Amino acid sequence: MDPLEIGHVIGVDGDTVDVQISVEDLKLEYHGKTYRIGRLGTYVTLPMDRRTLIGYITKVGFAGDLEPGPYPGPPRRITVTSQLLGTVEGDRFSRGVNEYPTLGDPVRLGVDEDFELIFGCFDELAGNDGGGYRKAFSMGRFAIDTDFEVKVLGKEFFAKHVAVMGNSGSGKSCTTAKIVHEATSLKHAQVVLFDMHGEYLKAFSDEFGNPLPNVTYLSDRNLVLPYWLLAYEEFEQLFIDRHNPLNVNAQKLFLREALEKLKLAGAEELGLRWEMTVDTPVYYDLQQLLTYAINMNNARYVLNTQNYAFARLPYRQLPPHEQEQLLLTKRMQFNPASAEGEVPHATYFGKLLGLINNIEGKLNDRRYDFLLRPFEQAKRNSELAGRMREEATPGQLSRTVTHVLRQILGQLDERRNLTIVDLSGLPFDVVDTTVAVLTRALFDFNFWSPPDVRHPVLLVFEEAHNYLPRKPIEGRKTFARDAVEKVAKEGRKYGVSAMIVSQRPSEISETVLSQCNSMVLMRMNNPDDQEYAARVVSDQFRSLISLLPSLKPGEGFIIGDGVLMPMRTLIDMPPREPQSANMDFFRLWATGGKGVDADVIVERWWRQERSGHQAAKGKPEDSPAVPEASPAPAGDAPAGSGFVPLERLSYGCPKPQQPQEQQPQTSNDDMRADPQPEEPVADAPDADADAPSADAETAQAEEELILPAQHDARPSGRSLAQRKLAELAARLSGRSAGKPGA
């Protein structure tokens, strides 16, 4: 009798085989090693005529209602259910089966010799093919027998999308870091990791907390994502005020009309006049959009004409296209009533105030600078500071997007193959949009690349349930879900792969998860998550889901084309762990920790500056492209991250964005005057001819006040405004006192 035979087949249902155990002793000694019979997660073999089938035990129980024998003797008629995984033919192992057992066929226990054959075949498959590179990477040790190393085929694993799923604390973040570390160990790999909670910088930093040389780290402090990359619907969702449903349609209509007008100059310069749509990513001035909205919210027409009822008569007589240009570039005043009569704009009058408030509010919120003030934000990014300048034509400004994409893809000053996009400091209402825009841009980049130069990129979506919801969110569009679903369905053809990481698979788009050909399934206790995971994995692996609650932290099943059969794996730790360890409540409650300084925390809260890994210690960033100022304080940003601290910038007071048309005192005589352009009148020379006039000083002060009043409504800006007002008042007072008759 075969010493490894443990029972025989009593039922076959597709790839599932029921086996009755015929041995009484459930421990088997073989070649000096003890094996347990009938244990969940162990392997069995089924010898056939010319081949041997390999199965995996997924269920153990009794057959019938027979009473068990006297304790502690082994029970009789134990049955196990085995999932067929593959076939050994000769000395080769392959996935799947094409011959099925019959009732009564013997069943053997899987032992080291079988594993050696399986892993030996895989080692041959994973070896170098003569191209000088390895075809597989190590994930850890085989949980059933740790003498065997589990390797994963790189091409099959990454090309068809990956999912890493498991409860919080199951080792999911370390597994993700391990996979990314193995991928980026290849010199020409390209990985973009969307880090929801700021965990992964630590995993890819040196002992001083500085990013490794191959890493680009982008956070809310130095990420640049120009607003003109947003599609119309994304821009609309960001700024439309929906509190008053009666005004929503007017705001939408205005936005579409305004964006088409504002994008026209850049499109014509780039030769895109006839190809341009409202979604074409060409530059336009956001301040002009705000000016146009303010003007149209107050716009009035001269009765029975198409002319706008500007407060100054000469402007009323201008041709329509010149009036439109004024509305885009200058804040105009409209005459509320006159002998001629004025009528409000039928569509926009009084209906754009919510839109205006949203644009102004976000422009004055530094958290949105990465999106709405890209040129100011670029000054804090050492790689982009010298490349993105606002003094250029619309077409040239449109082309600055090239630098943003090259940085994301690690192709600027130095080749870097990992980009970490830290989303933790961004306002939550733009996280979805940020992921959507970058995902779409990277997909389009490869889509439009010629096939012979197309380079593969892996997009890692960490904590994906936050922005890839299974169901649409009421009242909001889910742009990230749409973008990632497109990558999941079409990305493989263009070299764009997705890696989905989540602790709540039941809350993730089923379209995305069902396209993941490879999965790492870790401990999962929630029944809804287990059921959902069972629906998206292939039929032959569904029986493994019931084993997930019993997995240890750091242990998982690797399934898919990257491995020859499902591998229960003790996953190796990455060289450095992410910042994802649980806080030790009990120890800190007992010892008190380092203490909390409320003043410092409130100061950081005001300034929207986060502590910890985002202020890693190390040598200051060397960024000659940035204007020099005072030395950076200790605890500077991570070197190599492209980040330049705000304190190292010397912001001047730029020219005002749009001058505001002053409201004149109108009379009936003014209304009847011939509409000729107003000519400046030269003042008579006096003793102060060389000194600037009071009006000039006022204009200069107003120009200087544009930045704190409109650009940056923060405490430092307000104090600057107060100082300049005081200086202006003092100058004017002194001027008046020195003139005769004052």
Can you describe this structure in just a few lines?
The protein is α+β, with helices and mostly antiparallel strands. It is built from 22 helices and 22 strands. The longest helix is centred in the middle third of the chain and has 25 residues, at 245-269.
3D architecture notes:
With 742 residues, this protein is an alpha+beta fold. Among the domains are: 5-126, no CATH class; 149-214 and 417-585, Rossmann fold, CATH 3.40.50; 232-357, no CATH class. The protein has 22 helices and 22 strands. The strands form four sheets. The protein has an eleven-stranded mixed sheet. Strands 1-2-7-6-5-9 form a six-stranded antiparallel β-barrel. Helix 5 (245-269) packs across helix 6 (286-298), helix 6 (286-298) runs antiparallel to helix 9 and helix 21 runs antiparallel to helix 22 (715-737). Residues 612-659, 662-720 and 738-742 have low confidence and may be disordered.
Distinctive features:
742 residues, 6-stranded antiparallel barrel, 16% strand, alpha+beta, 11-stranded mixed beta sheet, Rossmann fold, 22 strands, disordered C terminus
If you consult CATH, what is the topology of the domain at 149-214 and 417-585? Rossmann fold
The description of the largest β-sheet is: 11 strands, mixed
Strand order of the largest sheet: 11-10-22-21-20-12-19-18-13-17-14
CATH architecture of the domain at 149-214 and 417-585: 3-Layer(aba) Sandwich
Helical content (DSSP H or I, runs of 4+): 25-40%
